[in-house]
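User: Let's play a game. I give you a shape written as tokens, and you guess the letters that built it. Ready? Here's round one.
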């Protein structure tokens, strides 16, 4: 059975209990997974080892907060993440935006402003999640590698950026291949050029897309968007009933 997709993930960097409780409560209502860090060193390590669609940073220690924002924008995986800065006062706004903040909240946090900010920023988080979302899907994939005979593998998951396959023992890292597959509901027929990034002795392989025709890319984005929305709605219902 395919693994359940992980929804929107946020990193909250704060040591203030009230701020943590308030943000976790309201972000939890959107079925977001919130990781809390009370210090900037731990937050930096998390950013290096995990992918977050949102980063929320308390500016109680302004210099460290600005440094973290700048570092996050230098990371390829977090360059487009939604960054919310929690400021001590309005005078910190220019520096926060220069460092890469997408939105700001000023203490004391107004619940009405917090709700509006999350309402506006959440679709951006979903869009960022979709870019990296690996949708579990099993479908036959016809694989052509140069002059070698075409063979049929099975997809494990697919994203905007690539695909994972099983039953593909002939592939080697660095192989340039052409993939032919059809995604279900609604059907999306695709012919995509890709490169093998990793593989193992069990016949599993991960491929990065190289050339995706515009029509196929649009259909793939729509397919992933529908699946991600279904996953997030399911997760929200599960949390709501918990």
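Assistant: Ready! My guess for every position:
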């Amino acid at each position: 059975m395919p693994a359940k997709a992980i929804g929107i993930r946020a990193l909250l960097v704060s040591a203030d209990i009230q701020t943590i409780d308030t943000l976790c409560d309201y972000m939890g209502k959107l079925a977001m997974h919130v990781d809390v860090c009370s210090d900037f060193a731990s937050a930096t390590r998390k950013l290096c080892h995990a992918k977050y669609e949102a980063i929320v940073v308390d500016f109680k220690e302004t210099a460290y907060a600005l440094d973290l924002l700048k570092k996050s924008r230098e990371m390829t995986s977090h360059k487009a993440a939604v960054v919310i800065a929690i400021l001590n006062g309005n005078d910190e706004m220019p520096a926060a935006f220069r460092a890469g903040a997408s939105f700001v909240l000023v203490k004391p946090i107004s619940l009405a402003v917090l709700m509006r900010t999350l309402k506006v920023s959440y679709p951006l988080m979903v869009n960022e999640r979709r870019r990296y979302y690996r949708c579990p899907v099993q479908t036959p994939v016809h694989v052509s590698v140069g002059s070698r005979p075409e063979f049929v593998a099975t997809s494990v998951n697919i994203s905007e950026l690539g695909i994972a396959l099983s039953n593909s023992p002939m592939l080697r890292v660095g192989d340039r291949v052409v993939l032919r597959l059809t995604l279900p509901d609604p059907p999306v027929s695709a012919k995509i050029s890709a490169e093998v990034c990793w593989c193992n002795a069990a016949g599993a392989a991960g491929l990065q897309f190289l050339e995706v025709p515009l029509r196929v890319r649009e259909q793939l984005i729509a397919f992933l968007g529908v699946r991600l929305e279904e996953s997030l709605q399911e997760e929200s219902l599960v949390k709501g009933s918990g």
